[in-house]
């Protein structure tokens, strides 16, 4: 039996003219019917533990404004987190923040492999194939994410964060541009930092290919509505173009 009925991947503007290439690992919260609700209440499945709230709308609008290819993954990160290596415990968490995920407890190797084959592999393969097709063409990877305003009781005052690891070039340019906006609290490798032990997308598709890249984190309450998503997409369309010009001058 096939685990998923819905294609895990949405591709926007496959032939987009922009040098920017967008990904959204946590753009949806679907759960395969075969897995039920994973034992998680409807209210909990609406929360940040299940998906990156608002990032699909931001990515869709940003893709349109830039004419950039975008690849979005539509299944819940509770089923499998596509920004984690599938072998890591965090890829199919038994607890997310304070919420138990009963459907992830005691998964057999076959059950884990089925999720990898149905969701993780098609998503990563589509990104890989699209990037391979751009070989020889200038490409800048932008990994789109959002973060919760409060995590395990700790408030996060920043509005947006730029994340990086081995290659900080684009992130540092964007940090400067965002601070110049004058109305933002900006995180430098915060609220998270990219590492080979915590992230999959940037290390695999950015660093290993030698592509300029950045991981973007926008606070979820700022993009929970369509108006907020459009406003942040417009802001990033403007800032990414300015950052690209600065990057070319390095």
SSE layout:
Layout: E1 9-12, E2 20-24, H1 42-46, H2 55-66, E3 69-73, E4 95-96, E5 99-100, H3 109-133, E6 140-147, E7 150-151, E8 154-155, E9 160-163, H4 169-180, E10 186-188, H5 201-207, E11 212-219, H6 226-249
Parallel strand pairs: 2-3, 2-6, 6-11, 9-10
Antiparallel strand pairs: 1-3, 4-5, 7-8, 9-11
What's a concise summary of this model?
It contains six helices and eleven strands. With 250 residues, it is an alpha/beta fold. The strands form three sheets. Strands 1-3-2-6-11-9-10 form a seven-stranded mixed β-sheet, sandwiched between helices. Strands 4-5 form a two-stranded antiparallel sheet. A two-stranded antiparallel sheet has the order 7-8.
Describe this structure in words.
The chain is α/β, with parallel strands linked by helices. 34% of the residues lie in helices and 18% in strands. It has helices spanning 42-46, 55-66, 109-133, 169-180, 201-207, 226-249; strands spanning 9-12, 20-24, 69-73, 95-96, 99-100, 140-147, 150-151, 154-155, 160-163, 186-188, 212-219. A seven-stranded mixed sheet has the order 1-3-2-6-11-9-10, sandwiched between helices. A two-stranded antiparallel sheet has the order 4-5. A two-stranded antiparallel sheet has the order 7-8. Helix 4 links the parallel strand 9 and strand 10. Helix 2 packs across helix 6 and helix 4 (169-180) crosses helix 6.
């Amino acid at each position: 039996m096939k685990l998923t009925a819905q294609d895990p991947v949405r591709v926007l503007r496959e032939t987009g003219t922009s040098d920017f290439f967008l990904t959204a690992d946590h753009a949806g919260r679907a759960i395969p019917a075969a897995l039920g609700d994973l034992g998680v209440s409807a209210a909990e499945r609406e929360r940040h533990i299940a998906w990156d709230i608002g990032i699909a709308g931001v990515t869709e609008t940003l893709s349109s404004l830039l004419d950039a290819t975008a690849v979005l993954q539509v299944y819940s990160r509770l089923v499998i987190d596509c920004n984690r290596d599938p072998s890591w415990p965090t890829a199919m968490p038994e607890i997310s923040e304070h919420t138990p995920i009963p459907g992830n407890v005691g998964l057999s190797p076959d059950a884990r492999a089925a999720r990898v084959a149905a969701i993780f592999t098609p998503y990563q393969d589509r990104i890989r194939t699209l990037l391979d097709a751009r070989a020889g063409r200038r490409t800048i990877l932008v990994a789109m994410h959002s973060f919760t305003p409060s995590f395990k009781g700790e408030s996060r005052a920043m509005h947006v964060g730029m994340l990086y690891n081995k290659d900080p070039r684009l992130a540092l340019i964007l940090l400067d541009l965002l601070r110049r906006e004058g109305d933002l609290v900006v995180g430098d490798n915060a609220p998270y930092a990219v590492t080979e032990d915590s992230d999959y997308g940037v290390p695999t598709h950015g660093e290993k290919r030698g592509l300029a890249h950045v991981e973007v984190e926008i606070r979820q309450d700022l993009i929970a509505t369509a108006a907020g998503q459009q406003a942040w997409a417009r802001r990033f369309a403007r800032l990414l173009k300015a950052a690209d010009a600065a990057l070319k001058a390095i």
